[in-house]
Amino acid sequence: MDVSLTLWALTIAGLCALIAADFFIGRKPHEVSVKEAGIWTVVWIVLAALFGLGLLLLAGGQPAGEFFAGYITEKSLSVDNLFVFVLIMAKFAVPSQYQQRVLLFGVLIALVLRAVFIAAGAAIIASFAWVFYIFGAFLIWTAWKLIQEARAEEHDEEFEENRLLKAAERRFGVADRYHGTKLFIQQNGKRVMTPMLVVMLAIGTTDVLFALDSIPAIFGLTQDPYIVFTANAFALMGLRQLYFLIGGLLRKLVHLSYGLSIILGFIGVKLVLHALHESGVHVPEISIPFSLGFIVVVLAVTTVTSLMASRKQATAEQHDEEHVDA
Questions:
Q1: What is the dihedral of CA 107, 108, 109, 110, to 10 degrees?
Q2: Quick check: 194 and 184 in contact, CB under 8 A?
Q3: Exposed e or buried b for every residue in 29-51, given b needs 16+ CB within 10 A?
Q4: Which residue did the predictor score with more confidence, 204 or 223?
């Protein structure tokens, strides 16, 4: 796509307006109900669908297909982020009425950092076509690692702060309790951070680790920076509501890692084939419609098998409890 600076500016302004509306509607700290989370989840999905349809009408089927494939991939990969978000909220004991505010700013930080990653990735791809080999190999390795972790059932149950976060805490100091939605307070004559700011930074900077596989993954579906950015923006901005909507269902998605590993491995192979094609080797390339269909089918099968396995496990546990009581 030949995207002008005007269109870039209008798109960013539109996203900022949506974010501002989201903030002002939910600016008063409160516990988010399932109904509220469900409504806003639908709103963000509809907005993403309308944006994709707009691309279809204005730019054609190829850009629209790339956007929907990228959006669904980023959305599915972002669900994995929610496991870590739950651990972060637990570690910092975030009061339920403040969790919405924490996630809003944490996601905004993540979006800004991802924009930097996207710009860097686009510049590298434009200059060095061989980078597709690296991206493809990295995604295949990540897919294998996900499968190994899923089979070993080694899931960290406690969040560990990264170096950047620890450095910020040493530099500014941290208050011993929450002070509403304040980010800084005066304590013993010194300006210190509140736990509210620390947890926002934790969510925002932790997302960088997830961007290491999600950004190469979407570049495997499209090399258009505009589509990469907008797909990431819509996927991330709906993540906050998704946290409250399916928070209780996360533990039931027991096969999610397998599904994500299949998707990452598939895109990794697609990237390698594309790199070979760019190098003049006559190999088949995987089309966007096939990629979109494959991703949707994998996610559907993963969700169904996960829920079936969770239900079977719950039934077995209930049977064991009844046997013990008897």
A1: 50
A2: yes
A3: eeebeeebbeebbeebbebbeeb
A4: 223
Per-residue pLDDT band at 251 (split at 50, 70, 90) = low
What's the full length of the chain, in residues?
326
Distance, in Å, from the CA atom of 64 to the CA atom of 67, rounded to the nearest integer, reads 5
In whole angstroms, give the CA distance from residue 95 to residue 107: 18
Contact 36, 223 (CB under 8 A): no
Say yes or no to pLDDT of 164 above 80.
Answer: no
The answer to whether the CB of 158 falls within 8 A of the CB of 144 is no
Q: Which long-range contacts (CB under 8 A, 24 or more apart) does 85-89 make?
A: 85/203, 85/243, 86/247, 86/250, 87/156, 87/157, 87/158, 87/159, 88/159, 88/199, 88/202, 88/203, 88/206, 89/199
**243 contact partners, CB below 8 Å, separation of at least 6:** 37, 82, 85, 99, 103
Q: Give the residue carrying structure tokens 């905004």.
A: 108
Burial of 1 (0-12, 13-18, 19+ CB in 10 A): middle
With H, G, I as helix, E, B as strand and everything else as coil, classify residue 94: coil
- The pLDDT of residue 172 is above 80: no
Give CA separation, 76 vs 21, 127, 235, 265, in Å. Answer: 25, 30, 9, 14
pLDDT in tens, 8-21: 899 889 888 888 88
- Check pLDDT > 60 for residue 326: no
Return the amino acid letter for 35: K
Task: Look at residue 195 and tell me whether its pLDDT is greater than 70.
Answer: yes
Q: What is the DSSP letter of 33?
A: P
- Beta bridge pairs of residue 108: none
Look over the chain and give the mean of its residue pLDDT values, rounded to a whole number: 80
